[in-house]
Every structure is written in structure tokens, then in C-alpha cells.
């Protein structure tokens, strides 16, 4: 019985912390398994990122990025590569505005690696060919070309595709970010 209670407490805490950070447990598990081999298997032309924001916000592809960090275990410095993106398309969509609220109008911006971004990714893959123990992490940063003048916060979603076969997975699920003048969302 103690084991079951501990397991339920662990699951409850994991759910609580996941809800607070807006990162689904499935994403945490997927990224925990993202390693040298899985990074080497990615085709740069398959990489896509969807950013979904409320109507009135416009994502700035030039200032929005996908970041890959490689850190060798024995060294203090790390490779921190902000991959260059370009806009593929944007479309009007609806998203849940939260529990006990209806759907809200939103815009989905689908981005892909630019030619420069594809080369950056290939360079990272080439550096991974050396058999060095490294940690590998992914993050995303979003900036806006336009936002409503009265906006004090933004709720956003980010989905990532690393393989056409696997499709998109949710990286950030409805996170709310308080805005200050000149703020950038994410890293």
C-alpha cells in the first residue's frame, strides 16, 4: 500500500509540475530520450515549428528561433546554436482559452529551417559524429512583429516536428507569458 501511495504521490506531483510549466509529460519523456543518435537521424528539411498565438499577435520569424544546446560533460562552455527559421504559412485557427472557457480565435504560424538554419543543423550533426559525451537540449524562443496595444499577457502553444513520419508533438501547451515592453517569449 505504501508503494501505491508513493506512486500516486509521484504521479500527482509530476502532473502538478507539468501543469505549472505547460510542458506535457509526453514531451518531457520524448525529449529525455532525444540523444546523439536521434539528432543524427533528423533530416533538416523535415524540421518544422508551429507557434499558435491569439488573434492580433503576429510572430516575427526573423526573431523566432529553435535553439539546440550541446554541452560536453567535462567542459564549461557549450555550443548554443539558434537555428534560423523562415515562415512557411499562417492560418486562422481556434484554441481552447482554458478550463471553463470556450475556444478563442488564434493564428498558427508554421515555420521551417531556412537554408542557413538547415546548414546550422548539419553542422551540429557533424560535430555529433565525434564520440564525445555530451548533453543535448532543445528550446524555442518567440518574438512578435505585432501585438495588440492593450496586451498585458499572451497565451501560446508551440509544436515541433523533427520527422515527417512522427509528425508534430507539443513542446509548450498553452503557456501564459506576462508581457513587458520589448519582451521576447521563451529563450
For the largest beta-sheet, the strand count, sense and barrel status come to: 5 strands, antiparallel
Strand content: 35-45%
Rounded to the nearest angstrom, the distance between the terminal CA atoms is 43 Å
Helix content: 25-40%
Structural class: alpha+beta
* H and E string: HHHEEEEEEHEEEEE
The overall average pLDDT, rounded, is 80
Write the SSE topology.
Elements: H1 2-21, H2 25-32, H3 36-41, E1 48-54, E2 58-59, E3 65-72, E4 78-83, E5 85-96, E6 103-113, H4 115-128, E7 134-142, E8 144-146, E9 153-161, E10 168-178, E11 185-186
Antiparallel strand pairs: 1-6, 1-9, 2-8, 3-4, 3-7, 5-6, 7-11, 9-10
What would your notes on this structure say?
This protein has 187 residues and is α+β, with helices and mostly antiparallel strands. It contains four helices and eleven strands, in the order αααββββββαβββββ. The protein has one domain (23-186). The protein has helices at 2-21, 25-32, 36-41, 115-128, and strands at residues 48-54, 58-59, 65-72, 78-83, 85-96, 103-113, 134-142, 144-146, 153-161, 168-178, 185-186. It has a five-stranded antiparallel sheet with strand order 5-6-1-9-10. Strands 4-3-7-11 form a four-stranded antiparallel sheet, covered by helices on one side. Strands 2-8 form a two-stranded antiparallel sheet. A hairpin with a 5-residue loop joins β3 (65-72) and β4. The longest helix is centred in the N-terminal third of the chain and has 20 residues, at 2-21. It is elongated, with a radius of gyration of 18 Å. The protein starts with a helix and ends with a strand.
Amino acid at each position: 500500500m505504501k508503494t501505491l501511495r508513493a506512486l500516486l504521490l509521484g504521479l500527482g506531483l509530476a502532473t502538478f509540475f507539468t501543469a505549472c510549466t505547460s510542458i506535457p509529460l509526453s514531451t518531457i519523456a520524448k525529449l529525455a530520450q532525444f540523444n546523439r543518435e536521434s539528432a543524427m537521424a533528423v533530416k533538416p528539411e523535415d524540421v518544422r515549428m508551429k507557434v499558435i498565438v491569439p488573434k492580433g499577435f503576429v510572430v516575427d520569424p526573423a526573431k523566432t528561433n529553435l535553439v539546440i544546446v550541446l554541452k560536453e560533460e567535462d567542459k564549461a562552455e557549450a555550443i548554443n546554436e539558434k537555428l534560423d527559421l523562415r515562415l512557411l504559412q499562417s492560418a486562422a485557427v481556434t484554441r481552447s482559452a482554458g478550463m471553463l472557457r470556450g475556444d478563442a480565435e488564434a493564428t498558427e504560424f508554421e515555420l521551417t529551417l531556412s537554408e542557413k538554419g538547415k546548414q546550422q543543423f548539419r553542422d551540429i550533426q557533424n560535430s555529433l559524429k565525434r564520440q564525445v559525451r555530451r548533453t543535448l537540449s532543445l528550446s524555442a524562443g518567440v518574438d512578435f512583429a505585432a501585438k495588440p496595444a492593450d496586451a498585458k499577457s499572451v497565451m501560446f502553444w508551440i509544436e515541433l516536428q523533427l520527422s515527417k513520419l512522427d509528425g508534430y508533438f507539443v513542446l509548450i501547451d498553452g503557456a501564459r507569458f506576462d508581457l513587458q515592453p520589448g519582451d521576447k517569449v521563451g529563450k
